[in-house]
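Submission sheet (multi-component)
Chains listed below:
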Amino acid sequence: MVTVLLPGPLRGEAGGASRLDVTAAGTLRAVLDEMAAAHPRLARRIRDERGELRRYVNVFVDGEDCRHSGGLATPVKDGAEVQVLPSVAGG
Amino acid sequence: MARLLAIGTAKGLFLATSTDDRRSWEITGPHFPMTGVYAVAVDTRRSTPRLLAGMTSSHFGPSVATSDDLGASWDEPDQAPVAFPADTGVSLGRVWQLMPAGPDEPDVVWAGTEPSALFKSTDGGRSFELVRSLWDHPHRPQWEGGFGGQAVHTVLPHPRDPARLLVAMSTGGVYRSEDAGASWTPGNTGIRAYFLPDEWPEFGQCVHKVARDAGNPERLYAQNHHGVYRSDDDGRTWSSIADGLPSDFGFPMVAHPGRGGTVWTFPLVADGERYPTDHRCRVFRSVDAGGKWEPLSVGLPEGPFYPAVLRDAMCADDATPAGVYFGTRSGSVFASRDEGDSWSLVAAHLPDVLCVRAAEV
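Outcome: structure written.
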């Protein structure tokens, strides 16, 4: 089981939940794919239609920014915590 | 009967409603806070008017939502309403234009996007499909982006012939279809592209906005990146109507919805000096299809005025006399209930106004 932590602005797309349990493990892509099946609108806030992470969305796997650890191919072990956070951006 | 003015801003959508023939306005919002609302439409072809909003979160991306209760609630599909197919290899930047088709196609809504593409909805704007013929056009690799990005920002259905459609993009210029979007030909003859070595190319112009004449649908008006033009042959060829304007630079171009020959625009000094001409807040109107222009400023701010008006931040409603509306990059919205003769403030201190649309609801 993997726990996905959601930021406030995205919780409305997950029925108000601040965390989601996902059974998929292996890679971050697999985790996000499973989440997309259950919460498609949430998923497209995080990734675009190519499946790429949106530029100003950061995803941390056990505290490490996935952009520095393999992107969507970042390994996600059973029991890991995946945290989605909006980056500092905007005017 | 109420009059609705939808105001898309850089940080959300505001809805102004008037029940006293546009004398006073009640404003709600922001709807979709912290999103840039570049496109809004009020689809009055339906028994219940439908609002459509194209919004883009800088963090969470673009989407389109609809409302059938005048903005009291919004509906956004689970699946992305506008998305590029996988084989294109690109993703949607934002929706720049939402345009209901003509009365013969009550469920068709067009969307113009960044990157430059046209999408078609046949379910009233709930879901859209890429128009492949324009996407696959051999000119597409040569369409460039301007400062605002590379986008189809104008979609003009023909009011009487569903087979005819015109789009305009920056850069790229005008493209026309006479077979319901199956094929496209550029329609830029006579429009100058001063920023290119060949100033009169077949395509590549930076057309800012095109409007269709109400009396003669073959007649179009264009505000170009320097240059104001009219076409009398449905966008095949263009001739200048800039004489009489203080500048040929600007963004909006709005045609009277019910009477031919009347158009409004908001000139800026120049590409390199994007302030209102003479640093005054003035709309310019022609009632003879661009033959002569007159400044309109009664009721508008009298002192030095610097904000610009963007390409979709001016519109007219379908009342008699027509209402005219514009919003500025400084967040002020002005309305005229007498076709521009006089103006009053609808709202101030909003975020930058990106688009306005008005209709009787």
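Remark: The first strand of chain A starts at residue 2 and ends at 5.
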